[in-house]
Amino acid sequence: MSSQQDSKGVVLTGFYQNNDALPVLIDCKDEAEHTSLSSRRTGQYNIHSHARNAVGKPPNSSSSQDSPDELSMDDYWTELQHIQMSRGSDQELPEEVLMKVPDEGELEEEWLKEAGLSDLIGDQAGDLQESIVLLSTLTRTQAAAVQKRVETVTQTLRKKNKQHQIPDVRDIFGLPSAQSGKIASANRTQPAGTSENGKQDAQSDGQAISTCGNDKSSLDMALSETDINLDISFSEQAASLKEQSKSNEPQGDEDDSLLTNFKIPQDKTGTTKIGDLASQDMKKVRSLALIELTALYDMFGIDFKSHKAVKIKIKESGLFGVPLTVLLEQDQKKVPGTRVPLILQKLISHIEEEGLDTEGLLRIPGSATRVKSLCQELEANFYERTFAWDSVKQHDAASLLKFFIRELPHPLLTVEYLNAFITVQKLPTRKHQLQALNLLVLFLPEPNQDTLKTLLEFLQRVIDSKEKNKMTLNNIAVIMAPNLFRFKGFRSKSGEQEFAMTTGTANIMRWLIKYQNLLWLIPKFLLNQVRKQNTENQKKMSRDKAMKKLLKKMAYDREKHEKPYRSTTKTDALQGVIWVQAPQFFKVSMAIQLTEDLKASDVLARLLGQISTVAIKREDMCLYEIGGNIGERCLDDETYMKDLYQLNPNAEWVIKSQSR
């Protein structure tokens, strides 16, 4: 598999026909020698300092100087050499299949499709009902990003097909407010969902839902250097604070200890993580995250382009070189509900059983002959559970883990958005970079999210033992970056581009590990936009239902009474009472009095405390917010129930086992 890049930055990809190649690593003839070498590499990596001195050239790995700079880059190039050697055993020459280079209009058309706005273009452009609700929730910067892409596609279609009438973009973003929900005027003058004075428009249920917010207190909150504000659209923050963003903040940190410890201000309605939402709401989050990331990149003039993966011949079974989806289908036949490949889980658990205090863990390669033999045995015996794990040495298992990651036929960060991850380093501040990474993680496919999360959590546990294993955050980032970013179809560059790729991906790897707890959170402003979409959809369904009933009454000349929606009664609302269900344990609901300090954890404890006959693990149970303006959401323990009730008064509250 090969890859090259033209002058426009479009990746052209070719693929190997033989995907059965086994790893051939550099033989460790004297592992003691490698251990001795690793013991001298205990300093912190100074990636950017070295980059300034290297003038775009790869360092000389034979240098006798033992400075932290030299050693950091020496380890990177050594790891890269191992990867290249492992791929040098392919017997067949690759058959190059070049991807068609799309024009700008085609790229933007694909973007609109990914964002769930395909009906803004093409033959369906006259019927915007599917996009009206989504457009009505967008902030000014998000709407501008959509409008820019629609204009590009429209211009392209007019050039290609002049005989057809293509709607003008101003027609799309200038619909009457009664039809579009203020798509044009709201998005051009103030964030969607706000009135001219900056206050929120009331929703049908009497509750205001903020989609981005622009009041002074919120912006003051965004100005904090160590706070990540999830209440306000990231692109709106960038638009308001663009001048302050032009600071001289360094793009790289010379030491692990210099990485800023960002924090998330407490939200009384609870934080939401990937996996807490129902699939239908998560689909909306992914579309909104793509629009938001594009808007953020637009604010700084950064080109955002995705790449479409070419269909390739892949292995349909096995462990290594198999797509994640295929691998998980195999695994789920053995262990239902598996979300992370079993082979990866087993490699990680075996490494940890041997102890994470081994010096040079993940840096020192395993024996080439042993790793090749182990790979063959695993392919044959893993699912039969006859593989002898006791004979696997720790460094061999670590080499297999890295091999598994880099031999995925499609990279863990996906072909479509790998360049978008790399482009994160062009953003001006660390906060902007983390915001972009957060959005990128949100629209990864679920198998990729789950596998990446498991990998990053393991790497952090290795780093936690750095006093003994000498593997700091920077050490791990430098070793793992080529395995994550240089997938099998990646073609190496040379000179200055190669070195920029090296330092950039190593830094991104550091941020993914360091800030992983922040990256798996769903920003509140995106969740509020989902709530608004759901509310608008419910309004539309109610109108459609009412029209159908009216027509039915006219046709049959009889009256149809609508069954009232069963939710909290007015009396309950006045008394501040919610009804909590636990259908697994109780046949009836339990009344809970809302107080200012009542949390989700208190509700769980109160109900589960009444169950004495069933053995229940508290960590397996969750209080869910279901219905109203959300599909289904698992609440974190620190959620204040009264505040959440005010945000979604028509929700039902159910205790059940966690779905993920």
Topology record:
Elements: E1 2-5, E2 11-14, H1 31-39, H2 47-54, H3 68-86, H4 104-114, H5 129-136, H6 140-160, H7 169-172, H8 177-180, H9 183-189, H10 216-223, H11 234-240, H12 242-245, H13 279-299, H14 324-334, H15 342-354, H16 368-381, H17 394-406, H18 418-423, H19 430-442, H20 446-464, H21 466-469, H22 473-485, H23 495-514, H24 516-519, H25 524-556, H26 570-575, E3 577-581, E4 590-593, H27 600-608, E5 621-627, E6 630-634, H28 641-647, E7 652-657
Helix share, percent: 40-55%
Low-confidence stretches: 1-71, 89-101, 175-222, 557-570
Mean pLDDT: 74
Counted by DSSP, the helix tally is 28
* Percent strand: 5-15%
User: What is the makeup of the main sheet?
Assistant: 5 strands, mixed
CATH architecture title of the domain at 2-97 and 307-519: Orthogonal Bundle
Distance between the termini: 35 Å
Number of strands: 7
**CATH fold name of the domain at 2-97 and 307-519:** Phosphatidylinositol 3-kinase, Chain A
Shape: globular
Task: Give me the Rg, rounded.
Answer: 27 Å
Which strand order spans the largest sheet, edge to edge or round the barrel? 4-3-7-5-6
- Give the C-level CATH assignment of the domain at 2-97 and 307-519: Mainly Alpha
Give the full name of the CATH homologous superfamily of the domain at 2-97 and 307-519: Rho GTPase activation protein
Structural class, by secondary structure, is mainly alpha
